Amino acid sequence: MLANLLIGGALVAVMVLATGIAIDQFEKLSTDIKVKKLLLATVIIGLSTSLPELFITVTSGLSGEPQIALGDLMGANIANLSWVIGGAALVGKAIPVVGEYIREDLWITMILAMAPFLLMIDGTLGRFDGVILIFGYLLYLSDLVEKGRYRIKQAKLEKHVISKHHLKTIEGRLIHIVKMTLSLAVLGVAAAKLVGVAVNIAHGLGASTFWVGLIVVALGTTLPEVIVSLEAVKRREASLILGNLLGSVVVNSSLIMGIGAVLSPVIFDDTLTKGISGIFMVVVLGLFWLFTKTKHRLDRWEGGVLVGIYLMFVGIQFLALR
Question: How far apart are CA 247 and CA 44, in angstroms?
Answer without folding.
Answer: 8
